[in-house]
Amino acid sequence: MTNPRTSKLSGALNQLTDHLHWLREEGVATVAADSSLVRAVSRRAAVASGPAASGPGTSHPAAGPAAVKIAAGRPPPAASPVETPSATKPASPAEQEAAMALAAIAQRVAVCRLCPLGRTRSRTVPGQGHSRPEIMFVGEGPGEDEDRQGLAFVGRAGQLLSRQILRMGLTRAEVFIGNIVKCRPPGNRAPLPDEMAACLPYLREQIAILQPKVIVCLGGTAVKGLLGVATGITRLRGQWHSYAGVDVMPTYHPSYLLRGGGEDKARWWEVWDDLVAVLKKIGRAPPPK
């Protein structure tokens, strides 16, 4: 009889393997992961596999990219919490100090009960990424995958955002990704005004610590929460705004492109135009396709 836990772990590892394969195809040579997460996954894999995993007749795939195969026509794999810096270098004292301050905020978020969302969440999602990024992405709130993993943008919308970031010539580890609210609203609904008001002080503190050059607001709820602007995202996108001296670019949320907006490919190009404008603002240009 198949062990449900083993089957679930196997599926998760297969998703991660596929994601790493996709990253390699995108030109990413190295990846970075939280060391505690790697140790936990290794322990669980050893327990789930048991002695039979190394016994006679057990086949092991060859190490390295050559062992990973993706069938033709298969849809892109789900996003992974693995972050991919373009280069590994020691954090500066300022980055280390900022990282400690962000961790302190995350600890406060973890025990927060300032709004009703604290009673229905599984895990808080404080956001993750570089402690001193040039670009910060802000969405509206965690979804089901984020609520389960405690990481921002790791579902289908997160996968699309990852591809957009890579196309910009950056990696998730080089930016910071967060949300207006740190807990999942029930049924993935938009957060209510009182929920946003209760959570916004955390986001404001994060922005002050991160000191990004540009904030990209993903969707109308993010714009309304951060800037207090109720104008629709269709009219706002592509136009520069400002928050506490930081340039803000509103654009469509990745989930919009994956749902109704996905039928209109012009929306995809509008988002790309917005991201190119963001790169230009920080003195960069997108790499050749």
Describe this protein's structure:
- The chain is an alpha/beta fold.
- It folds into two domains: 4-67, no CATH class; 93-281, Uracil-DNA Glycosylase, subunit E (3-Layer(aba) Sandwich).
- It is built from eleven helices and six strands.
- It has helices spanning 4-25, 35-49, 93-110, 117-120, 144-149, 156-167, 193-210, 220-227, 233-236, 254-258, 265-281, and strands at residues 128-129, 135-139, 176-179, 214-218, 241-243, 246-251.
- A six-stranded mixed β-sheet has the order 1-3-2-4-6-5, with helices on both faces.
- Strand 5 and strand 6 (246-251) form a beta hairpin.
- Helix 1 crosses helix 2 and helix 3 packs antiparallel against helix 7 (193-210).
- It is globular, with a radius of gyration of 20 Å.
Summarize the model shown.
With 289 residues, the chain is of the alpha/beta class. It is built from eleven helices and six strands.
